[in-house]
Amino acid sequence: MTLEIRATEQREMKEFGRVASIALVGFPAEVFEAVRPEWTLCAFEDGRLATSYAAWPFTMRFNGEGVPVAAVTAVGTLPIYRRRGYLRKTIATHFKLMHERGEQALAVLIASLVAIYQRYGYAVVSTRKSYTVEPRFLEFAEGQPVPGNLREATDEFGLLVELYRRFRAERTGYMHRGRAMWDAGVLSPSPGGGQLATIVYEEAGEPLGYVIYTAEPQPGIRQELVHRITIRDLVWLTPAAYRAIWEYFGPMDVVGNIIWERVPSDDPLPHLLVEPRRLHITSSDGLLARIVDVERALPMRRYSAEGSLTFEVLDDMCPWNHSRWKLDTSGTETSVGSTRNEPEVVMPVSTLAMLMFGQISASEAWRMGRLDVLDHSKLSKWDAVMHTTYRPFCPDIF
To answer: What CA–CA distance (Å, rounded) separates 390 from 385?
Structure first.
């Protein structure tokens, strides 16, 4: 038996899609047709493709900065080749190549099973909520007039792109969407004969928000409520825009439920409604991230305060990370280098990812047992420097 880890060739891409489809039960092979051979890295046993793996080259927002990331996708091993360590070897090879090439310092993904990836140093760096609410319960606790108006948007792709660009500017985890990502995601046709709609909020002719949703039949509930609204994308630049969009859904008497499955953890709606429990909020893991190169990754984001941080990173999969480091930042300009100084904290690379994204603070990480503190007086400094303007979130699936 021979094992080879390499990119697929163009002639092998049909087999790549087949393997990924079988390994990821429920995903048709056509989903992977946009993957290019140069983005793949697969395990071949005796010349047969056993493990599929690919990484899209994306740009992600990071507390006000655009950062290149490897967006990992199509990960799977055919059942007959499992428990042989092929995925670990493929991931280790990918991390080594990322380090050597210097193009991306972060790998991100949306996991089908989080446990698979935490063993490779990934961490859950964002939380995803979901809402299921009847329109009649969209009643606000405080009455405030909405000065603008709503209109239906048709063939205004440029407007959606500009509003999304402004909305994501200071956020963390939001992707830079190309046209193909829009068309395959929030603007894709509604399944099952439903209708796709886009509503824009304006004040004095200035667009300040939009919502993209589908309206579909909802079988199995009482006869007079026959539709379901599924929100795909909601962008707002002002509180009035946010309120106006939700008030738009309130009078929809023939809608059984409004469903929003990808809700940021800091979304304001639970703090605005008369009865927030009617949202039936659920919570789950969102984006996962892996810091592949500490020295290059940390200077890429913007920081919320000036400061110097010394820390030790534990990383048995990427030995170039396993060291003591010092970070010096003015907030916008940051440098990171190895140091012999005593660290203020010691942590695994997965915890560092959670701090970098702003998923948890250093103080929270210490209380959870996710890092060791050698100088407790420094925790407040860590919290201030690592703080992000918004909670991390990724609204897209890749």
So the answer is: 14
